[in-house]
């Protein structure tokens, strides 16, 4: 049977008509949800209402993936739904998201994948600036890198959590692939710019293809691309999108030492959300080092409550020399639950400070569970 192009396009036109009607019906319901969220609140509370609900979004993504009969690829359908919900957020409220810029950084990529195109973004110079933008209320949400699967914890983020009042509302995982971008050819490159963590992730490539070339650290990979675009014999190691943004050519793709290189980001805000089917909680506590076995006792509290730990790290407390703040993330528990309440009470018996830094839906990629 031969297919007629005009007839097929008429079918598409008719389907688009239905889609637009349905999308607007959905948008109207979303507006009503926005009104419901503000019901019975005083003006100050109304201003602080949260329209971004990570647990509900996780549910929607799971549902559309489950319902998808094909031929649309699951990732394509999720990308469409990302934008539908982004528009939905923007209809309910003006939302501003702070990220570590400039445009084209991995933080920018993570933010766009999390919030979509319809919200507004504010590029920040440092991770500290992202925290400050949220803490001072200039942005309702901020996106900060927390840890990388090769390079480990992002120290400036941990240190900011020690001092800041912001809370973690969501987590998101971004596969990280590095590209060598330049205006010149590989042979002519005299200098390579990148973020130190990215340079550390591309050691094998650098040693084989650019041995002995000057490596220059900068604040972000997109800043590196910006610098490389201004110099004739320079290159940057950065995200693919920087090629278009900064007018650079792709010389080498996927140059990271490990192909499953992934960075976990936190979405920070002034409040976390209610429990979902599967949550995590990140706690921070300082143990009194004069008590023998204090750390062991602290960790035993989690064991006693059958809580599985997914992350443990420590940083100097910045308040007392040789006192350490421990970060412990547990899975299968929400920060507002009775279990977490008991854990905090028991920890307080031998820890100097105990704080829940955040609680958020478990978004680990399937293969890391
Ligand atoms: O369910 C909500 O609370 C909504 O605001 C609706 C909706 C959606 O469009 O589905 C929009 C934004 C939220 O982040 C989650 C879901």
UniProtKB/TrEMBL annotation:
Subcellular location: Cytoplasm
Keyword Ion transport: no
Tree of life domain: Eukaryota
Keywords assigned: Amino-acid biosynthesis, Aromatic amino acid biosynthesis, Cytoplasm, Isomerase, Lyase, Multifunctional enzyme, Phenylalanine biosynthesis
Single GO BP term: L-phenylalanine biosynthetic process
Database matches in InterPro entries: ACT-like_dom_sf, ACT_dom, Chor_mutase/pphenate_deHydtase, Chorismate_II_sf, CM_dom_sf, CM_II_prokaryot, Preph_deHydtase
Span of domain ACT: 283-361
SUPFAM superfamilies the UniProt entry points to: ACT-like, Chorismate mutase II, Periplasmic binding protein-like II
Pathway(s): Metabolic intermediate biosynthesis; prephenate biosynthesis; prephenate from chorismate: step 1/1; Amino-acid biosynthesis; L-phenylalanine biosynthesis; phenylpyruvate from prephenate: step 1/1
GO CC terms: cytoplasm
Pfam families registered for this protein in UniProt: ACT, CM_2, PDT
Top-tier EC class: lyase
GO molecular function list: chorismate mutase activity; prephenate dehydratase activity
Coiled-coil segments on the chain, per record: none
Span of domain Prephenate dehydratase: 96-270
The protein's Enzyme Commission number: 4.2.1.51
Catalytic activity as recorded in UniProt: prephenate + H(+) = 3-phenylpyruvate + CO2 + H2O; chorismate = prephenate
Domain Chorismate mutase stretches: 1-96
Purpose: Catalyzes the Claisen rearrangement of chorismate to prephenate and the decarboxylation/dehydration of prephenate to phenylpyruvate.
PANTHER family tied to this protein: PREPHENATE DEHYDRATASE P PROTEIN, PREPHENATE DEHYDRATASE-RELATED
Protein name per its UniProtKB record: Bifunctional chorismate mutase/prephenate dehydratase
